[in-house]
Amino acid sequence: MKMKKILFFLMIVMLFGSCTKDLNPVDYSDINPSIFPQSEADVEAMVYACYYPLRGSWWDGINSTSERGIMFVLDATTEILSGKFSVQQYGHLLNYGPEDEDVTYFYDGNASTPGSGFYNKISRMTLAISLIEESKVSDEIKKKAIAEIRCARGMLAYNLFDMFGPIVIAPLEVLQKPMVEKPLARLSNEEMVKFIEDDLNAAAADLPLPGETEYGRFDKGVAKMLLIRLYLHEKQWDKVLSTCNDIQGYNYYSLVPDYVGMWDLNGAQNCPEVIWAIPCNYEGTSENQWQLMALPSNYAPMGGWATVQSTWHFYDSFEENDVRKTMLIAEYTGTDGNVYNRSNPGDNIDLGPIPLKINPDDQRSTSLSTVDIIIYRYADVILSKAEAIANLSGPNQEAMDLVNQIRHRAGIPDKKLADYSTLDKFNDLILLERSHEYWCENGQYRADLIRHGKFVSRCIEQTGSPYANDNKVVFPFSRRAVSEGKGLFIQNPGYN
């Protein structure tokens, strides 16, 4: 019933927001604050509209499992994913620039639909908060609604910050005067971090505890998990550690024994390891396109487009009995009766195995699957805590025990502290475990490599790319975004 509730409201928002194919949500900047919102239902609709850009949709969902989503693009810049064309190819070589809309799109859309990217969604959330604050609904309704929107805004702002560095955050007073042209500069790094941190701390204070809200909606655990990602990004190890302890203090989350089972059709629902997942369905509210992206056309019982592959280097980095490796399909029998594997790859696994990650959906009769999209899991808390402990006080047994919790669940032997007694060796172990644990989830491994100074060197090591350089740790903005900034908006270095 809870899942049906959130899906129902999402469908209301979609219908309320548009009658076009793109299903754009309502632009609250065009709503008269004197008449809207008037009721709890109005506020609820505004809240769900702020979830809208975070869903899994090819058209305009940042968590799409297609090439239009952050997981696909970010993992394609690492050894996890590769491909022969488009962003999966030039991303893998770190060969992207301001003209490549597959990456600039996330900020400000593309040439045919300028402004359709995600930074404008942050402005809409800012306006929504203001309208709710001025509404006549009860303070209790206001507090919960604003907490959800601030969590959504913090999540979206963090994702863009991770990709592009500091971005423009339009203040409310500017948004309230849309007819006045006012170019804005990007925030400083410190201002950007504070903006995200303030949103997420405020959200964590007022959101319900884990288990006390509908499946798919935000709670304190989601806000805290996002804070962990922010603090890892900034290498604020003390805050990483304290926030991990906060999440563990809820006494709600735990590792589940069956890693593979989390990606069953109903695996994420009521799972004590899942911190946040996006419900998917066939009605178009949110959708999982991963099987369409990853499966070859000759894969039984239903194939896909074989848009992307993993890499053999990544496959070979797993230990033999690691259960997480079983979801990388290194051999299959095609509908033509031929067996395809490393020695007979055909065109579909010549670069690497099939990165399936999600399990079969027996009801799948289209290009889509209804397997929910898992974004954050408790395993991330455990590995983040291990990393924080080691980087605060050096590798110790407590940190190694945390790593071994993850390895034990994967079915592989414990590591010994004596073999990873230096910080460099321990961080390398953390990076390896992160890549094995979270491949094809939310694309966070790119940020992990960057944090430890391995992003560019790893690309050169794996691909020999002549395009890899330190400027590629952030993506470029489009030339349109820079031009509209009237000299105040500065492009990232190396992309002029």
Listing every helix as H and every strand as E from the N terminus to the C terminus, the arrangement reads: HHHHHHHHHHHEHHEEEEEHHHHHH
**What is the count of DSSP helices, taking H or I runs of 4+ residues?**
19
Specify the structural class: mainly alpha
Q: Total strand count, please?
A: 6
Distance between the termini: 52 Å
Mean pLDDT over all positions: 91
The largest pleated sheet is described as: 2 strands, antiparallel
Strand adjacency order, main sheet: 1-6
| CATH topology-level name of the domain at 8-17 and 38-55 and 97-206 and 452-458 and 472-490 | Serine Threonine Protein Phosphatase 5, Tetratricopeptide repeat
- State the name of the first-level CATH class of the domain at 8-17 and 38-55 and 97-206 and 452-458 and 472-490: Mainly Alpha
Backbone CA Rg: 22 Å
- How much of the sequence lies in strands comes to under 5%
Share of helical residues: 40-55%
Low-pLDDT parts are 1-29
Global morphology: globular
Q: How does CATH name the architecture of the domain at 8-17 and 38-55 and 97-206 and 452-458 and 472-490? A: Alpha Horseshoe
Give a quick rundown of the structure:
The protein is mainly α. Helix content is 44%, strand content 4%.
